[in-house]
Amino acid sequence: MTTTGRFTIPSEEHFADETKRLAELWGADAIRNSDGTHLDEAVERLGKKIYSAYFPTRAHNEWISLHMDETPQVYLLTQRVLAEADTVTVDLMERFYAEQLQPNRDADPHRYWEVVDRTTGEVVDPERWDFDAEHDAVTIRGSEAMHEYTVSFLAYIIWDPVEMYNHLTNDWGDKEHEIPFDIYHPATRDFVFRTFGQWLKDNPQTDVVRFTTFFYQFTLIFDQKHREKIVDWFGCACTVSPRALDDFEALHGYRLRPEDFVDEGCYNSTWRIPRKAQHDWIAFLATFVRANVKKLVDETHAAGKEAMMFLGDQWIGTEPYMEGFDELGLDAVVGSVGDGTTLRMIADIPGVRYTEGRFLPYFFPDTFHEGNDPSIEGLDNWRKARRAILRSPISRMGYGGYLSLAAKFPKFVDTVTAIADEFRDIHERTGGKPAEGELNVAILNCWGRMRSWMAFTVAHALPNQQTYSYYGILEALSGMRVNVRFISFDDVLERGVDDDVDVIINAGPERTSFSGGDVWRDPRLVSTIRRWVRGGGAFVGVGQPTSSDWQGRFFQLADVLGVDQERFQTLSVDKYWPAVTDANFITEEATDVDFGEPILNVYPIDEDVTLLDVKDGRVQLAANDYGRGRGVYISGLPYSAANARLLERALFYASRNEDRYAAWSSTNPECEVAHFPERHLYCVVNNTDQMQTTRVQRADGAIDDFTLAPSAIAWQELE
After folding, report:
1. Does the annotation count 313 as an active-site position?
2. pLDDT value at position 34?
3. Collapsing DSSP states into helix, strand and coil, what is residue 150?
4. Where in the numbering of this chain does the Lacto-N-biose phosphorylase-like N-terminal TIM barrel domain appear (predicted)?
């Protein structure tokens, strides 16, 4: 087994000897610096590949402090203020963090800001309000008593949000705040490229420039108590400037409103159904960002170095699943691995030579402190990622943060040694190829391919009560023996359903980008999918799929799914329920299934539907024959081994592939099988921290028995 390579270790100042020791233990062939750290010359002489983090738009206060009108800007929405007379004053910065944000007092507020009567939704005439720059307040005249008012205003971002987060997390005390800057301004753009050119000359030891990231931060806004107030990993809120807004108007022929960004306080969350203005701004921004990323990449290559992009921080405008990403010429993408879903988000990226995962835990004091055992998180993170790696391998792995903290935990050091060796062993045995997928599954939503493996997310891999019932679908699929793609409603409307798709999944709460909202009122969409299912296709709906109140139905494909949701409009119409079926292929192994947050009042539309789980008068699981195809309804699917098994069986059942299910399946849902026919082998993984036993049936019907230690993987050669 290879014990060296495919591993990047972080280091820092005055830690050369320990870096050398741990690099040998972990088989590291590359060394990186983390935010706020530098590599000693002794570390650089270890003969490893050197990654250098590079921040194109921060860490140069000497420039931006003289050009504070060229920092990035964001549209902010104030608190709603109740008018009790004909004049009302709105404090712009109430509940925002003044050390991070500062109102733009330079550009004409009456041109770039907006006051809205939130009771009527009407925009207040600019002649009726004034901005007090001394007190950062707006006074509205002629207001209606008992109406609420807001101000949407431009603010400068005067403390880089990620450096700020690291600063607060690590208690960096008096360290100077790093001010970000916006390259949309020609003078600052020229500074960025001149500075980078000089940096390349000054850092001949660097082999890989690890851009962290490029120009625009995802939406990360803090409140007056230093808490995260607005977080959207996909948000474009922090990308605006008067110059860019004017250029957009000249190009597109219409002017964006502040409301197009603050979006009634939703800030264009990825859960919102995207509108034309949002799509146009994303495309406008991406065109600008990519042109300048390409220049940085070309300069990097001209200096004989590789260009690597970190999938996070200032990554807005570089979405890797948008068309044209491969034209940037990046060598690699590295991203944080929080689970199987985020692993796939990195591993499936097209157009780069290799991908790398930065595993958890991050070597920060919030985890590496006395009394904690970081190895528990380390193994949990590895088990989640490993099942996805078997389906879509990344090329490299590593960690980030302060190595000196990790070195204080010998058990964790040993855990990483074992993980790194196992990661290399998987690559060696499989040749870096994915396991065989047996079905082709398409996730259908508004975003499609652009948000591959990014659906149902608010902040990167962080749990959320309102999302876990849907995010669990992706987590289950990330390590399942299926091939996954993401398609949009526009894709289906333009060209129908691809011939090789076996199953379509539509999932999400009502009126979100993931369920689709009123797109389901389009007769072309529902007709296309109905025709496809009746011809033998499979449709799985989760939560409130195909939902839109229209023509007396809420689930517009209720006829396919066999169920609809009572919206308190047809209570006078009786519903007749067939008996719940105990014996069905989908539920043969169902134990401890968790359907997540309840979807109330889901009922069968007739007595022909097969009810598989009903609780408190609501359908949680149902199957329905529809021509030569089938529909399956699931009310919610948080991730667990039992739920992943239920979904897998539902996919095989809906696509009428029950006869193919047994081969290369594990009898224990806590264990999964990955088959590599070209390599003539398969493996079984234990996804738990407990010993597990299981049986695996081969394609020829032969049975293999396994006893797996906690977190273990077992390989079996085939003749």
Report:
1. yes
2. 79
3. strand
4. 5-433
Distance CA 686, CA 689 (A): 8
State whether 402 and 471 are in the same domain.
Answer: no
3-state SS class at 615: strand
Verify that 507 and 604 share a domain, yes or no. yes
Q: Looking at the domain assignment, is residue 447 inside a domain?
A: yes
Q: Are 22 and 47 in contact (CB under 8 A)?
A: no
pTM score, two decimals? 0.96
Question: What pLDDT is recorded for position 460?
Answer: 75
Helices (H), 459-504: 468-478, 489-495
Q: What is the pLDDT of residue 165?
A: 85
Segment (H or E) for 495: helix 489-495
Q: Which residue has the tokens 């088989």?
A: 27
What 3-state class would DSSP assign to 291?
helix
User: Which residues, including other chains, have CB under 8 Å from residue 115's CB and lie 6 or more apart?
Assistant: 90, 123, 124, 126, 128, 129, 138, 140, 149, 150, 151, 152
Task: Look at strands 538-543 and 503-508 and give their pairing.
Answer: parallel
CA 524, 530, 535, 540 torsion-angle sign: positive
Contact 428, 387 (CB under 8 A): no
The CATH number assigned to the domain holding 22 equals 3.20.20.80
Q: For residues 384 and 16, give the distance between their C-alpha atoms in angstroms, rounded to a whole number.
A: 32
Same domain, 486 and 592: yes
Q: What are phi and psi of 404, to 5 degrees?
A: -60, -30
Catalytic residue, from 313, 339, 421, 502: name it.
313
CATH code assigned at 697: 2.60.40.1180
- pLDDT at site 174: 83
Q: Provide the pLDDT for residue 273.
A: 97
Q: How many residues does the chain have?
A: 719
- β-partners of residue 708 are 692
Which regions of the chain are under pLDDT 50?
none
* DSSP structural state of residue 254: S
The tally of domains found in the chain comes to 3
Sign of CA dihedral 160, 162, 166, 169: positive
Considering only CA atoms, which of 359, 401, 356 is closest in space to residue 377? 359
pLDDT in tens, 198-250: 999 999 999 999 999 899 999 999 999 988 899 999 999 999 999 999 999 99
Within a domain: 72: no
- Domain for residue 689, yes or no? yes
Helix (H, G, I), strand (E, B) or coil at 436: coil
| CA gap 57, 212 in Å, rounded | 9
The 10 Å CB-count burial string (b at 16+, else e) for 601-633 is: bbbbbeeebbbbbbeeebbbbbbbebeebbbbb
Q: What is the pLDDT of residues 549-590, one digit of tens each?
A: 999 999 999 999 999 999 999 999 999 999 999 899 999 998
Range of the domain at 46: 7-57+184-224+271-430
SS3 per residue for 676-690: EHHHCEEEEEECCCC
What does DSSP say about strands 354-358 and 396-398: parallel, antiparallel, or unpaired? parallel
Which DSSP symbol is given to 146?
Answer: T
